[in-house]
TrEMBL record:
Organism annotation: Thioflavicoccus mobilis 8321
Homology family: Belongs to the thioredoxin family.
Pfam families assigned: Thioredoxin, TPR_19, TPR_20
Lineage: Bacteria, Pseudomonadati, Pseudomonadota, Gammaproteobacteria, Chromatiales
Gene Ontology annotations of biological process type: response to stress
Record-annotated Thioredoxin domain positions: 6-113
InterPro entries with a match to the protein in the record: Thioredoxin (IPR005746), Thioredoxin-like_sf (IPR036249), Thioredoxin_CS (IPR017937), Thioredoxin_domain (IPR013766), TPR-like_helical_dom_sf (IPR011990)
GO (cellular component) term, any one: cytoplasm
Protein name: Thioredoxin
């Protein structure tokens, strides 16, 4: 284990380089353990085996919490073993206790890129470029080479949506694989489909702006214009329209303005300056 190129010992002095910086290139699994912890010792050989078996698709970093008490306190480690997965410099998931190997594999596979993921990314780029037939061919290639990739399901949802079958895409999304049920991409995709449905029969953005100029209290026009802005990628414009709707006619459409703002937050990954700013404004408008 000590000689494995995929296993490192992390200390307070080396953590930034060994974990934070490395996680920008490859996922890092941090095992917080202690010598007195029997479950830790049961888990260690499983993690070591997987680190070698995955061959560098992730790095295993071991933190002895007895020697690195301040580091354990910083990450609020309250029980052992605790295993956190870092990506892009941040902890993104964790589990506690000595899980069976099969469950740890499932945990890892949610975060470790597969070769077919690259093909699916290409399919998404083709969809954005308006080339659905080529995207369908790429998805078929990924399905043939890696039929167990759960992200195939999301690619097929996007393909249906691109073909104009929003209802079919929404129905397919409701059958998302269990391991993706809480994936932020699923929430974002659900929002995309919702806004696509809103604009399906809506007037153009220019026509909607004309309606609002004639009647600023036209709540439907404001809501549809916000959806048009989302589809165009103008999230700030959309949030601004929805905030105005929230202030002027909160009850319209069964609280539609607030729900739409939350969907946009999901589309944006739930973080960032824009989300923070408009989440604060939404809260102020509500209370």
């Amino acid at each position: 284990m000590a000689d494995s190129p995929f296993i490192v010992t992390a200390t307070a002095q080396t953590f930034t380089q060994a974990v934070v910086e490395t996680s920008h290139r490859v996922p890092v699994l941090v095992d917080f353990w202690a010598d007195w912890c029997a479950p830790c010792k049961a888990l260690m050989p499983i993690l070591a085996k997987l680190a070698d078996e995955y061959g560098g698709k992730f790095i295993l970093a071991k933190v002895d919490t007895e020697a690195e008490r301040e580091l354990a306190a910083y990450f609020d480690i309250r029980s052992l073993p605790t295993v956190q997965l870092f990506k892009d410099g941040q902890p993104v998931d964790q589990f506690m206790g000595a899980l069976p190997e099969a469950q740890i594999r499932e945990f890892l596979d949610r975060h470790i890129p597969r070769e077919s993921d690259g093909v699916l990314e290409r399919a998404e780029e083709l969809l954005h470029a308006g080339r659905p037939e080529e995207a369908a061919a790429a998805i078929a290639e990924a399905r043939e080479n890696d039929p167990d990739n759960p992200r195939l399901h999301l690619a097929e949802v996007r393909l249906k949506a691109a073909s104009g079958d929003t209802a079919g895409a929404e129905a397919l999304l409701e059958r998302v694989p269990l391991e993706l049920a809480h994936d932020p991409e699923v929430a974002a995709l659900r929002g995309e489909l919702r806004f696509s449905g809103i604009v399906a029969d809506a007037p153009s953005a220019e026509a909607l702006r004309e309606r609002l100029a004639a009647d600023p209290k036209d709540s439907e026009a404001r809501y549809q214009l916000a959806a048009r802005y989302v589809i165009a990628g103008d999230y700030e414009g959309a949030l601004d329209e929805l905030l105005q709707l929230l202030k002027s006619d909160r009850a319209w459409g069964d609280d539609a303005a607030r729900k739409a703002m939350v969907m946009i937050f999901d589309l944006l990954g739930g973080q960032g300056e824009l989300v923070k700013r408009y989440r604060g404004r939404m809260t102020a408008a509500l209370y």
